[in-house]
Amino acid sequence: MAVDMNVKELLVIGDSDLLIHQVQGEWSTKNVKILSYLHCVKEISKKFTKIEFKHIPRIQNEFADALATLSSMIQHPDKNCIDPIRVGIRDQHAYYFHVDEEPDDKPWYHDIGRFLTTRKYPENATNSQKRALRTLANHFFLNGEILYRRTPDMGLLRCVDVAEETKLLEEIHAGTCGPHMNGFTLAKKILRAGYFRMTMESDSILYVQKCHQCQIHGDFIRILPNE
Fold first, then answer.
1. Which phi and psi (to 5°) does residue 216 adopt?
2. CATH class of segment(s) 2-62
3. Could you state, in order of their start, the residue ranges of all structural domains in the chain?
4. C-alpha span between 54 and 80 (Å, rounded)
């Protein structure tokens, strides 16, 4: 595109430190698959009077990655004329991290903890619900006000509510040492850390799907959805 527009001076910005140094000739290229692309870039570079390659961190290249992802998802019927895209810059991201709140402002383990303490059932509970609560309570242990889930190897996992789970998801998935793992791995890592919630796996999967960094830098299959 720059050649067709008769551009004479060009600044190329990329987030791959390896490719930038290879194009500049500072690092050698050992991958045979990249050699043909490198040769093509050098031939095109001769058409400019001045061309400069600059590396920037990936976190600063999110907008270009988003446009590249968008272009791979859209098949425009007219290749000669493409409608302009208006992009508005907002103060905050449009995405959000949120786990559904408890409907009655009580933790999900409230009935289990009360049954272990007072042996009382919830109001209007049917016989089948009472039997299910008794069976479920056998897998939990109450220590003061803290409820633990017993594991098959006689370990104890601390039960957490929505607010505590949200903090765990944020810290373990994208915290200081968070590797942005997938939902199943995230749920297992939280369990290994000693915490438990009945919907931990499904909540972890939904959280990862809403992670902004995972959407931008994830390994997407860049192919049209109709192919």
1. -80, -45
2. alpha beta
3. 2-62, 160-217
4. 30
